[in-house]
Design brief:
- This protein has 365 residues and is α/β, with parallel strands linked by helices.
- The protein folds into two domains: 221 residues, TIM Barrel; 97 residues, D-serine dehydratase-like domain (Lyase, Ornithine Decarboxylase, Chain A, domain 1, Beta Barrel).
- It has ten helices and 17 strands.
- Strands 1, 10, 11, 12, 13, 14, 15, 16 and 17 form a nine-stranded mixed β-sheet that branches. The protein has an eight-stranded parallel β-sheet with strand order 2-9-8-7-6-5-4-3, covered by helices on one side.
- Helix 3 runs parallel beside helix 4 and helix 6 packs across helix 7.
- The protein is globular.
């Protein structure tokens, strides 16, 4: 793969996952400016779409104080690469995973989310046996209706019980206000986020009033971060996918970032002047609500996918691009795209500058 460094991007075999390094850096700079410098809170970017310590380290170099992972396996990859402050925004349940948690806590300061005392007690016992003391955040459901305890007394009660344990450290609260993502009216979206996160920060204060310190109040994804970061009482933002941006973030969630992540694809068939067939189907780009978009002045009225084929129907018939030509496509959603690939090609000024193995892909456990 390193033999490709210095080659024009057109030299890549397709389909190929690419990131424009200049655009990537501008997106990182935009997020740090909003979160760290303007809102003056911490940035703990989610790496579920990054899949490589290289990108996590770019965020850390820009000012992030830690990272977020979706799964323990991803945290193991990041810890092995030397990253030390890691939140697993998920519950770690069962003896096999808890044993792995204990082991990775010997490499890094790993936090996990909890919402059941029985689970916390199991972690506490394993931590005692393993000689570690992991931090835990109580996940609070402020409206998403996924995991998490309800705000207010249920969370306060759980915090009291956790605080009495000796081998875990209660560190604070975590949530994801995702129920506000699809609200198109920005004024209403702002009110929804502020109301939801107000429940979180009020709960944090109630825990403090009961005599238990709350260091961390963590929330905020790419589709909400520019609002969530400014809610009083929030201490850190987890948004990470915005360093790429994609069709879902821009068209559905109102994220005003540049598109850094693209797929290079080859035109493999032109059965009709109004139809282009390329080698990037849903096994390349995943399946989400937002359809991919084609760059390069191709006026597509529809982009549909089968497993290995992208079918682009043109607004007007045309002869270009021809079979063998390469086209660039913005994926619908980076989370459903990056994990399908083995490597990410870093492109600058049209040439391959770096090749990053996506060592976090497949880490579902």
């Amino acid at each position: 793969m390193n033999s490709l460094v210095g080659q024009p991007r057109e030299a890549l075999d397709t389909p190929a996952l690419m990131v424009d390094l200049d655009v990537l850096q501008r997106n990182i700079d935009r997020m740090t400016a909003t979160i760290i410098r303007e809102a003056k809170v911490g940035w703990r970017p989610h790496t579920k779409a990054m899949k490589t310590p290289a990108l996590a380290n770019l965020c850390l170099e820009a000012g992030a104080h830690g990272i977020t992972c979706a799964k323990l396996g991803e945290a193991e990859v990041m810890a092995a690469a030397g990253i030390r402050d890691i939140l697993v925004a998920n519950q770690i349940v069962g003896p096999t995973k808890i044993d792995r948690l204990v082991k990775v806590c010997r490499q890094a300061d790993v936090m996990v989310c909890v919402d059941q005392f029985e689970n916390v007690r199991e972690i506490d016992r394993a931590a005692e046996a393993g000689g570690v003391r992991p931090r835990v955040l109580i996940e609070v459901d402020v409206g998403m209706q996924r995991a998490g305890v309800l705000p207010g007394e249920p969370a306060v009660s759980l915090a009291r019980r956790i605080a009495r344990l000796r081998h875990v450290r209660f560190a604070g609260l975590q949530t994801w206000e995702a129920h506000a993502l699809f609200e198109p009216d920005m004024g209403k979206k702002k009110r929804m986020i502020e109301e939801s996160l107000g429940k979180l920060t009020d709960t944090a204060q109630a825990i403090r009033d009961s005599g238990i310190p709350v260091e961390i109040v963590s929330c905020g994804g790419t589709g909400t971060y520019w609002i969530s970061a400014f809610v009083p009482g929030v201490t850190e933002i987890e948004a990470g996918g915005g360093i790429y941006c994609d069709i879902s973030y821009r068209r559905q969630f109102g994220v005003e970032h540049e598109f850094a992540l693209t797929i290079l694809s080859t035109v493999t068939s032109r059965p009709q002047p109004s139809r282009i067939i390329c080698d990037a189907g849903f096994k390349t780009m995943g399946r989400v609500d937002a359809a991919p978009e084609v760059l390069g002045g191709i006026d597509a009225k529809e982009f549909v996918m089968s497993a290995e084929h992208g079918i682009i129907r043109l607004a007007e018939p045309g002869e270009s691009p021809r079979v063998g030509d390469k086209i660039e496509i913005i994926p619908g959603y980076s989370d459903s795209t990056v994990f399908l690939h083995d490597v990410l090609y870093g492109i600058r000024s049209g040439r391959v500058e770096t090749v990053w193995p996506l060592v976090g892909r497949g880490k579902l456990q």
